[in-house]
Amino acid sequence: MEKQKQQEGIMQIPEWWTCPEGHEELQKAAHALGKKELLPRALISDQQRSYPRESLREVAKSGYSAVTIPVEAGGLKDGFTAFAVLSESFAHYCPSTTMCWVMHMTTAHTIYEAGTEEQRQRLLPRLRDGQIGGLAFSERATGGHFWNIGSKAIRNANGYLLDAEKSFVTSGGEADFYLVATTSPETDDPDNLMFLLVENDQRGVEAFPFDAMGLRGNASGPMNFKNVQVALENRIGSEGGMGYFNDNTIDPLFLLGSAACWVGIAQGALNMATDGAKRRVHADTGSSVTDYQVIRHELAKAQIKVDSARSMLYRTAEALDRCTKEGKELSECLYPLWQLKTHAADMVIDVTNSALQVSGGRGYMTGQVEKFVRDGRAGAIMGPTNEVLREWIGRTMIEVPWMD
Question: Is the pTM for the entire model greater than 0.85?
Answer without folding.
Answer: yes
